[in-house]
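Bench notes, afternoon.
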Amino acid sequence: MGFYAERILPHIIDKACSVGQVMKLRGRLVPRAKGIVLEVGMGSAINLEFYNPDTVELVYGLEPSRGMRLKATDNLARSPVAVQWLDLPGEKIPLLANSVDTVLLTFTLCTIPDHQVALQQMLRVLRPGGELLFLEHGEAPENPTQKWQHRITPVWKQFAGGCHLNRPIDQLIEQAGFHIKELENFYMPSAPQIAGYLYQGMAVKPDPAQASD
């Protein structure tokens, strides 16, 4: 799996995650990022073109895959914002607590092995009141789609970089301690339903100071 993961899979993921409809969704979400940004699972840096240099000071790009970081070279060269790579997995975010203003997740939470630890790390580094912007695919609400997601995922993840089709994204985010303030759920047009049920929205890290007022 080493050769496949480093040389072949990055190209497959890049193609799948940069089709027209997906890029439109990215273009709606990413410009909302501001300040110091942590993008978890930056991959081939597809999102960079959508960052607003007037509102973003720096983007930390967390990406453990060497193959994906190499695939990102051209996008980095055209980036409108400053980027600093963090070549570690989502469970190990090497940033100080309360040090970022925005966390961005796009088609990433499905692949992180220990998503609970990763989300807790995101919560730790995000400042109180900071925003988690997310665009993820996950568990559909009805059968037979949900049934097939659970049935296929054990095999699917072996060949799709650890991608799980059946994670309930909103529940995972809230269980980690975030408060979801915006959420849209829908099937992406022209995508297979088992992989095309989307969760798009924004969650915040609760601010203890405001809670006590």
